[in-house]
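Key idea: predict the complex, not the pieces.
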Amino acid sequence: MSSDHPHDDSGHGDEHAHDHGHEHSELGEMDLRVRALESVLAQKGYIDPAALDVLIDTYQTRVGPRNGARVVARAWVDPAFRQWLLADATAAIASLGYTGRQGEHMVAVENTDDTHHMVVCTLCSCYPWPVLGLPPTWYKSAPYRSRAVKDPRGVLADFGTVLPEATRIRVWDSTAEVRYLVIPQRPAGTEGLSEEQLADLVSRDSMIGTRLAGAPVEQEHTA
Amino acid sequence: MSYETKADLGGLPGFGKVVPEAEGELFHAAWEPRALALVLAMGATGSWNIDASRSVRETLPDYRELSYYQIWLRALEQLMQQRGQLFADEIASGEMRHAAAPVARVLRAADVQPALAKGSPTERPAPAAARFAVGQEVRMHAGKVDHHTRLPAYVQGRRGTIVRVHGAHVFADTNAQGLGEQPQWLYTVEFDEAELWGGDVPRQNLAVSVDAWESYLEAAA
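Result:
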């Protein structure tokens, strides 16, 4: 079981998101409430239960930070693509097949030796879904949303990220329908890597701006 | 009754550390993906717009005690109850007890990918020329508004610089209230940390921006 996030033990249905390696015989209150709601909405003809399965599968297996990593790796190896991405991120990202919901209006911002970008939504949880998938819990949490705009170096320290004092920190609060993607700096010594290998270095957090590309990330716990 | 958002968190103290998590950890309970999918599927019926749903979420009295998927679920129930699409006895029983109120569209499984890929762009033809240009100094409006807004408290009354012009976009404030899209020019406005926080915190070598509709701004004197 994972120990690095608040764990809600209420959920162990057939569609359980990941295996915690143990079973519970009772469904929690939230599971029952959501099942009841789904049942009523289906009876009323508002929803197609099969569409729910497709929606879930989409964000569990098809749309996630690997998309954004491919965008970043392309920008690292292809100067013309990088220029396009900085000038018209929506079109450049669409050229790789990533479009739509919560990424209709994209802006890409590039980290340099002088400037480090970080993205937050202080008012809710705005996040570029087509390139990063669903936001992590911490991105939607009060600690991140409250501190990112006032104490970003403290937030970065929570991720083990320390930047020189001379590096300007530039925080983008996504208060409208524009969505921001950080292009992290390409790590030194990666000249010989292929585009796919470079994409492996690009973590979700590095594209939000809380880590550097190539830095270690939390590993998912396996049962 | 006055409008009170619980979601305007920028700069507030006392929430503690950020807890990182692994990339693959999208859900922490089995009901969360179902709740997400219900919210997306009902959103696709066109019964409300995204600004109206944000308004309901941010005014939930226990917003700060709920997890994010709980917020989404609670707001979904409320949006549907407001429209006569769902009733408390149905939530409690899991059974349809009242006639269905027709919805404009039902999202079918085959339509999910095209619908997600299309999204809901908010850019609209500009109603007039943009009032501000990149490089111009502006001051953000200050003071309480009695409805949903996307102007965070921490920048209200602050002086900043226009750094991007995004075209005209659906105005969240009116759209949330059912007063129509009323598109306005949208800008990115950048602030220096001293302007936002004064001596509150040690200097970080920091600049922060928000995206702001034109009516949030006035030319700085």
